Amino acid sequence: MEIRYIQNSDIDKTKWDSCVHYANNGNVFGYRWFLNNISKDWDGLVEGDYTSVMPLFRQKTRFLKRNFLYTPDLIRHAGLYSTSVLSTHRLHLFLKAIPPKYKTIKLRLNEQNYLPEAPPGFQYCEKQNYQLMLHADYASLSANYSPALQAKIQQARKMQFVPSANIKPEKIAAFIREFGPQRKNQKACFHASQRIMYNVLHRGIGFASALLDKDKKIVATAFLVYSHSRILNLISAATPEGKSNGALALLYDLIIQTHAGRPLLLDFNTQETWPEGFGGEASIFVEVWR
What we know:
Blueprint: E1 3-6, H1 13-22, H2 32-38, E2 42-47, E3 52-60, E4 67-70, E5 81-82, H3 88-96, E6 104-109, E7 123-133, H4 138-143, H5 147-157, E8 162-164, H6 169-179, H7 186-203, E9 206-212, E10 218-227, E11 230-238, H8 240-244, H9 247-259, E12 265-267, E13 281-289
Parallel strand pairs: 4-6, 11-12
Antiparallel strand pairs: 1-2, 2-3, 3-4, 3-5, 6-13, 7-12, 7-13, 8-9, 9-10, 10-11
């Protein structure tokens, strides 16, 4: 098995994206356009004629000037994508093929990068994400909501929020920066999220969704992306009031209602447990480091 380390500028764009598109575990995080809009500082490991690929984001430590590999905040996980069998052996070979100049590595691998134990020379831990199958009709899906969630949604409906899909990426990014999770590279994420949202809208593979109050101010918003038979919650947030009065719960309920009965998986893209109220189930992925 030939695995090569290829610099970004030398990667065959068409073959890379074709591998991610047809991979057994393909997702939007692996496409070159998505990776490039996060950062230009990434290279790739490639097996053969792009049978398998793995993106590697690189950065230098400020004081030691040492190269290290990491997974950026806006990418839940990446890891190995392959049109061949996703065996533990293949994953081990890819991790072993990482150039020795990268002494420090911390990578989040996708759900099908199965590791029953830590790879040689690495440590690892399990993380979780929540997902919900949308094949059933809305009545069946909503019947699985927890009583607490149903009460929240009823509370929000009384507030007479107005749904809106006409929210510009700049406004969403600014709202997320103010009310979303705090990130280490907040400024970089702010700009990268706008680039990704504009690319998604240009490609026609996603949309913005929001709830507005009586003053036409956003109380909850989310940006969704379609890819590989799933609808991914790329980013979402709500004001403190929007959380307490159920606006965010109602927003997700409307998304589920709109997509119910379709062969899609709603990817909540969060480690928090609140999607359990919607009937969401945990999906395990792995982070490795050395």
